[in-house]
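Follow-up to my earlier ticket, as requested here are the two runs.
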Amino acid sequence: MSIKQFGPTKLDATIIPQIAKQWGTPVYLHDQNYIENSCQQLLNMPNAFGLHVRYAMKANSDRTVLRVVTSKGLDLDCSSLDEAARAHAAGVPFSRMMLTTQEVPSGEERTELEAMVKAGLKYNVCSMLQFNLIADFAKANQIDLSMRVHPGAAGGGESATRDTGSEYSCFGVHLNDVPTVKAKADEMGLRFTQVHVHIGSGGDPEKWRQNIDRELGFVKTYFPEATTVSFGGGLKVARMPGEKQADIASLGAYAKQRIEEFKAATGRELQMEIEPGTFVVANSGHIITRIIDKKLTNELNFLIVDGGMELLTRPLLYGSEHPIAIVRQDGTLLSSEYDQTPTAGLKSFGIVGRCCESGDSVRLDNDGNIVPVLIAEPEIGDYVVIGGTGAYSESMSPENYNSHRKPGAVMKTRSSELVQIRKKQVRAQLTENELDVQL
């Protein structure tokens, strides 16, 4: 192939062996330019009376990634106390965070939560119990709250496991319980100045529009003091060729129109908030693996690579697809699924990792069977590069399964310099928290 660059970041195939030689494989690779451009697209989203963008840090919580994102002006949505503490350790003030969690902190964690809230963290109430436990503290300290509302309607996730709005999902204060919580808040003089609904990830943009209409309806009914309305995240990205990415400008224009209509009907100006994660980082990332073996059964040719489900669990969890590129040891690009090059002379291979698990594959069907990938045939020692892995890969990996060590990560900076941002785990870290108990 004469083409050297591939994927949304236009990754130069010649740097793959460079990275592998310097830091080994498997290794995560991120692109600063792509992340910053994604942030800017979101900040440019049309809006009526102001836009606040939070990055859902669960997508990728590496401190360098957090610093790139927050330096572009995005704040953070945290899913746990530990995420908030981790972001603070990276230099992000609590005043730039919102905590949206299933946790119900008590004991030392409750003390920690109160300190974070006093330092400016926005607490997003996600259950009646959370509200009951925070109410006295919020009243004593004159702190306004946010509420995540479960809309009680079909959500917007691309699969059942990514749908957070349906009756089979438990996230947020159910719409049926909102009047009860609001009545108690009003009685105590507490204000919910923000309302939040997140219906799922990677789904139909039309569901996102429907969520805007639904949410503005109950903001009008139940939340007269709200000044901010968050429509959540879940903005779809096109990891694979043929997939359609969410049209940020179109969704923003729709939200702008509906918020302007809301003002015309109520006289109230609402700031819009969104909290994407995948959109910011997914296509910024690749996983570089090396082919360590080739096998043949009566049914399928296999490539065994040195990193699989312990680096990327999305195919096993969601049936998600990620584009595959094949790069020779000399840096020649043999084939790239994302770019659909070449279109002929390809061969089917099941690409699997080294875990003792039949689902350890980069592509699976709905029944968990391995799906072969059409690629140019490589040799042992060549590289399989997995695209679209900047989000929910290293942050969601079942690290240390089979006692494999978490790999390092590298950032390609805006000046094209390659910088290591996380070292590979050393073997001693596998057991450093285990106690030498003699029974």
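Run two:
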Amino acid sequence: MSQVLVVNCGSSSLKFAIMDGSGAAPILEGIADRLGSEHSNITFKFNGQKVEQPLHEHDHKGAVTAIKQWIDDHQDLNIQLVGIGHRVVHGGETFSQSVLIDEKVLQGIEDCSNFAPLHNPAHVKGINEAQALFGDLPHVAVFDTAFHQTMEADQYLYPIPMRLYREHHFRKYGFHGTSYRYISAKLASLNENFGSHNTLIAHLGNGASVCAVRAGLSVDTSMGITPLEGLMMGTRSGSLDPSLLSFISDAEGISMKQALDILNKESGLKGISEISNDCRTIETAQAAGDDRAELALNMFASKAAKHLASVATNLHSVDHLVFTGGIGENSPVLRDKICERLRMMGIRLDQNLNQTCPRGEISQLSSDSSSAKIWVIPTNEELLIAQDTLSLIDKH
């Protein structure tokens, strides 16, 4: 069976997986860490084993070279790569769907770098290196922002002078689109009617957002021009009074950029709990009676519920509420806290089903009296990237 190499480049890391698009477990997966440092390494997970090794070249080229070498060294597995799928964070208004990569597409990704300065340049590096080593294979870009290009202007525009949109394209773009598209399709596969229903999806992890989906299309989402807008997250503050930036800058004697770094890297669960940005660690502390942990979890749930209720105003009804992402899939504590705050919408969680929800499986958690079906649906962005890549290769 044909396989795809899925690549997700960050500024100092590169995640990868080899998949056949069927939903089966990856043949190979792993991550290259600390790129740009002499301590860079790469981890391969294969056949239940994990092997870590240093990189000879400490950059994206070194990571892609190591992956190519691993494939060459395992000829017995008969890996038949037919293409490479690249996750790209920001596609701006240029890209509303996944595309085969050519010079024009690559330039378009670069042009969006001002909106995602840490991510898009890294994506370009990864694509260039992969093209150099796997040059004969087609490459596909799958954009986090593409799914939200169906939002109407009254949802994606900011209430700022229109010239700033016309001249600079300042607007809400939204993220986690690959996850939302996967969840929408998976929900539709459970029942032929579900695809036409109104759905709220909460993608909750270290990065967190919500989305309102009508008949499979995004109509509103919480993240904005960057992933900082919206919910409180692992280390991000989410939405707040913009004037706070200048107050922090003046009070701390730091630049606006440094103040923005605080909102991106030192806030959210980490900032409030003063313990960690990891929800599991905070829940353990909360269970032991830590008041800071309790406050952090309550704030996270409150912000999530508020944004779910907010985006729901763009739906005619709420037929489904789906939890996904690392926290959404694995934290009955936060699912309970969020649903409790949505009781005014008729949302009712079955406590027993919530507590006994099996890890990694699709589960329905709503009580018989709930106005909407409540689900846990594990997301799989890598699988969707592999499927998009195979589909575009078949078409062309």
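The only thing I checked on run two: Residues 291-311 form the longest helix (21 residues). Let me know what else you need.
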